[in-house]
Amino acid sequence: MGQTLYQKIVRSHTVFEVDAQHVALYADLHVMNEYTSPQAFAGLAEKGLPVRCPEKQMGVVDHVIPTHPVPVGQRTIVIDAAAHQAANFTRNCEKHGIHLFDVTDPEQGIEHVVAPELGLIRPGMVVLCGDSHTTTYGALGALGFGIGTSEVEHVLATQTLVYRVARDMRIHVDGSLALGTTSKDLVLYIIARIGAQGARGFVVEYTGPAIDALSAEARMTLCNMTVEAGARGALIAPDATTRQYVCDHIRDLAGEALDAAQKRWLTLRSDDDAVFDVTHRFDAADVAPFVTWGTSPDQAIAINGQIPPLSTDDTERHNASKALNYMGLDAGQSLDGLPIDHVFIGSCTNARIEDLRAIAEIVRGRKVAPRVRAMVVPGSGRVRDQAEREGIAAALIDAGFEWRQPGCSMCLAMNDDILKPGERCASTTNRNFEGRQGRGARTHLMSPAMAAAAALAGRIVDIRKEIAHD
């Protein structure tokens, strides 16, 4: 029987089998942030253990850092608890010889944006991080997944992880995405169809013509949000698009070594006779621009649809009623035309250069609605610099958007970019949980294009109508 891509990567990184369900899994790269690492370093200190492979670690300050538009060298964290957290992280990285993209580093950014753009993510790798959206790296054919703090300590000490092997799921998408729809709409559509726990216990491999047509950065959005369906990982087999992206960003391979690596990458695909435990099939032609209405990413509808009626199932009815009450909405209501107070474009889901190019095309020569506060937070210093060179930043500023420094920002209320209670936000982030962007704040997930259009209109609108109007 053939093997899936997931099985091949796990087998090639298995140091030894622990039991029938668990292996000791070797990690090629371990990415850290200031939020999930302090206790791990404290555990090492208590045991008197060194970091086994400092050169296979990377640190980024991203969760708590403010994004005020000041020069990079003047960036400071003013919230005491956050500053203490970042300072401890800096000291630990310096002590153990780990490269850190600190507060004033010009290449600082969101960890899942920085690592691929520096060429650190390659097909066939296993990449770990104390953050659930490490699944992003599956876009480049690498197995990435989030781990807990105790596991961070174990990886630092051993460069391995005791890992429970997942089941295999294939999601095949036929057709092609229509004008006005993106990979963000596709993943929201899929999550709404299979549910927030629909891929729990699985690693998902995406296949099909619609996936093949996506750019590398669009695939990152898709794999990033697959964890919102409960998946333990997401993968897309390397192809010409993958190889081009990696080769454009890689720093330490050239010539014959790079040629040999590319040949290895070509073997990283599921065998024709590989068996998946579960397969889902969708048609990209069925995907419209999607927007969430509730407090879970699976509570989403097409912009031309209506919030579904309450279920007869007691649990589902309770969850939907609670979400609608929190969001100030009703079953049967349309989201098209719903007024918004704030627009946030950023996060590890949608803060790459392609995302910023897309919104610039929409807003160029137009203005943000008078009562709306609109923010754009690029995913890294490199993205920010490139956007400024291409004139994207100038177009956004002229339109009335705030042009910020890189960081996680308003994706989560761990810094000073926080919504006020009751404010309604059109957001390109990955989670719309209660209080995620601030206590009492109401978040609607959507694509960058949809968020940009909402900023201009002052309400949620169908981007397809805006495109047709233009």
TrEMBL record:
Protein's UniProt keywords contain Lyase: yes
Catalytic activity from the UniProt record: (2R,3S)-3-isopropylmalate = (2S)-2-isopropylmalate
GO biological process, alphabetically ordered: L-leucine biosynthetic process
GO molecular function: 3-isopropylmalate dehydratase activity; 4 iron, 4 sulfur cluster binding; metal ion binding
Record-listed E.C. numbers: 4.2.1.33
Oligomeric and partner information: Heterodimer of LeuC and LeuD.
Family: Belongs to the aconitase/IPM isomerase family.
Protein name: 3-isopropylmalate dehydratase
Origin species: Pandoraea anhela
